[in-house]
Design brief:
Elements lengths: L5 E4 L3 H12 L4 E5 L5 H4 L3 E2 L1 H7 L4 H25 L10 E5 L2 H9 L5 E4 H7 L9 E5 L3 E2 L2 H14 L3 E4 L3 E7 L2 E7 L4 E3 L2 E4 L16 E12 L8 E3 L4 E4 L4 E5 L3 E2 L8 H14 L8 E12 L5 E4 L7 E5 L5 H18 L16
Parallel strand pairs: 1-2, 1-12, 2-8, 4-14, 12-20
Antiparallel strand pairs: 3-7, 4-6, 5-6, 9-10, 10-11, 13-16, 13-17, 13-18, 14-15, 15-16, 19-20
Length: 363
């Protein structure tokens, strides 16, 4: 393996997407994957900037970045599938949010944002699987989903196909420096690997690795389950105020997700899983008796303001770049994040789209 120009700490979807973007451009890159349970494998894979922007007030740098990243997903998905030979289960058929009371219905009607308002009759005609208790719906026709497990597999293959390297089962414990510059990384076994650039994309547990203020990025536990796709299942992603249902091509329907702070365990809680299931059944009663296939928990990398940390380390060393803290939108934001990292490493150009995501905001 030749000496890399770039080492990426973290083998989740952010690290792998960034690695592939660099490798396909001819940059020598190595991705180091600790193999610990990651947010990517625990995610549902929704690509829903319209819904997220409406949920959080819309507008701003994160909204624009999200829309750009969805556009990039549409561009790169065919190439990624061709290079890797993996079907991503990429679905750009829209996401349907449903309301169960007059207050939610009025909110949908008042601000459809990037979607279409549907009254009760229109919603039930559009998605016959919905419960008759649904009062209205909001259809974000430009949103969609991808299978994050397939995406990770595809990116691993594409990275290697295009000349990158993947090291599994080792963790980056620190960044090596030389006279104010990055010199590479130090692994948890004491081994040193040299590189001119290091990208920290290590998810929720980066204290001691990234040169960030303590607690700038912290874990938020998320739990989900998958049930079998039976007769009467929805044709598209359904979101309620408390749960989502994501039909997958492999016959699963993923239901999620909880948000639990101060719990780093990876054991799903029976009570919270039951609550998610109940919320999903309230939307689609036909799934009540669908057998459960699996349940799981993961740790999302969150920040205090809900925005990711993307950009060069403001306090150095030169050559250290952050790409982390994407919280529950890591799958959605992976392409735009990778583009920004690649542009900086290849051309020294800092994209204006990531100015608001600098780590300097925490100092």
């Amino acid at each position: 393996m030749r000496k890399p120009d770039v080492i990426i700490a973290g083998g989740g979807i952010i690290g792998l997407m960034t690695g592939w973007m660099l490798a396909r451009a001819g940059v020598g890159v190595t991705v180091i994957d600790a193999g610990a349970p990651a947010a990517t494998l625990a995610a549902a894979g929704m690509l829903s900037p319209s819904f997220e922007n409406a949920l959080h007030g819309g507008g701003g740098a994160l909204a624009a970045f999200s829309q750009e990243s969805l556009r990039r997903w549409r561009e790169i998905a065919p190439e990624l599938m061709e290079v890797s030979g993996v079907d991503l289960d990429f679905d750009a058929g829209g996401i349907l949010a449903v309301a169960f009371d007059d207050f939610e219905a009025a909110a949908f009607a008042a601000d459809a944002g990037g979607g279409d308002y549907l009254d009760r009759a229109e919603a039930l005609a559009f998605e016959p699987s919905l419960s008759s208790s649904v009062r209205a719906a909001w259809f974000a026709k430009n949103d969609g989903q991808v299978d994050p497990r397939r995406a990770r597999k595809a990116l691993e293959r594409a990275l290697i196909h295009d000349g990158g390297a993947l090291i599994r089962g080792k963790r980056v414990a620190g960044v090596a420096r030389y006279v104010g510059n990055v010199a590479g990384v130090i692994l948890d076994n004491g081994e040193r690997l040299s590189a001119r650039h290091v990208v920290i994309a290590a998810g929720a547990r980066v204290d001691g690795v990234a040169n960030l203020p303590k607690g700038a990025v912290f874990p938020v536990k998320g739990e989900a389950l998958a049930i079998a796709r039976v007769a009467g299942a929805p044709k598209r992603v359904i979101r309620t105020g408390k749960a989502y249902l994501c039909p997958k091509a492999d016959g699963r329907i993923v239901i999620g997700a909880s948000e639990i702070k101060d719990d780093w365990s990876l054991n799903p809680d029976e009570r919270r899983i039951g609550a998610l299931h109940a919320c999903a059944m309230a939307a689609v009663p036909a799934l009540e008796d669908a057998p459960e296939i699996e349940r799981w928990a993961g740790l999302r990398p969150a920040t205090k303001d809900g925005a990711p940390v993307i950009g060069p380390a403001p306090e150095g060393p030169d050559g250290l770049f952050y790409a982390l803290g994407h919280y529950r939108n890591g799958v959605l934001l992976a392409p735009a994040t990778a583009d920004a990292v690649a542009a900086f490493i290849q051309r020294g150009r800092l994209s204006p789209s990531i100015a608001a995501f600098s780590a300097a905001r925490f100092t």
